[in-house]
Amino acid sequence: MKEIVQLTREEYESLAEKAGHNEKEILRQARKLYEENGICGIILDIECECDVSDRYSFKVSSYVREGKTGYSISYEDRRRLQEFVDSHATEMMTRKFGRQIEDINHWNTLARRMELVRWKFIGLTVFGWLAALALAVITLIR
């Protein structure tokens, strides 16, 4: 047989408030216990690197550390977990910032080409002035 209990609004609100406080306390305590005795943790390092030719790329590395419990993760499982995290982090970074990195790389390539063209024109100009000077000297000597 089920009992139906009626509460006043004040009683209901006080019970709801206590439940909310209890839930917050439970979450805080659970987080504390996990930090102290967690099975494993993942350290994720994401870098945006620039190589010698001014090309930017993402470098993702992760490390799986074991917690303080007696449970241990095998080397093979840690390696597989690291590969999984690395591939998904790289995919996420490429999906979010890939277009910007491609644009930066494109403009860096154009800037290098423009610098090369600039030096070619400077060389051509110097060669032209030297040729004009040589023709002027040859004309004066005759």
Describe the protein in words.
The structure is a single chain. The protein has 142 residues and is of the alpha+beta class. It contains two helices and two strands, in the order αββα. The model has no long low-confidence stretch (mean pLDDT 83). A hairpin with a 5-residue loop joins strand 1 (40-50) and strand 2. The protein is 68% helix and 15% strand.
Number of distinct helices: 2
Low-confidence stretches: none
Q: Span from first to last CA?
A: 129 Å
Class by alpha and beta content:
alpha+beta
Strand order of the largest sheet: 1-2
Largest sheet composition: 2 strands, antiparallel
**Principal-axis shape:** elongated
Q: Fraction of residues in helices?
A: 55-70%
Order of helices and strands: HEEH
- Portion in strands: 15-25%
How many β strands by DSSP?
2
Q: What integer value in Å does the Rg equal? A: 34 Å
Average pLDDT for all residues:
83
Describe the secondary-structure layout:
Blueprint: H1 9-37, E1 40-50, E2 56-66, H2 75-141
Antiparallel strand pairs: 1-2
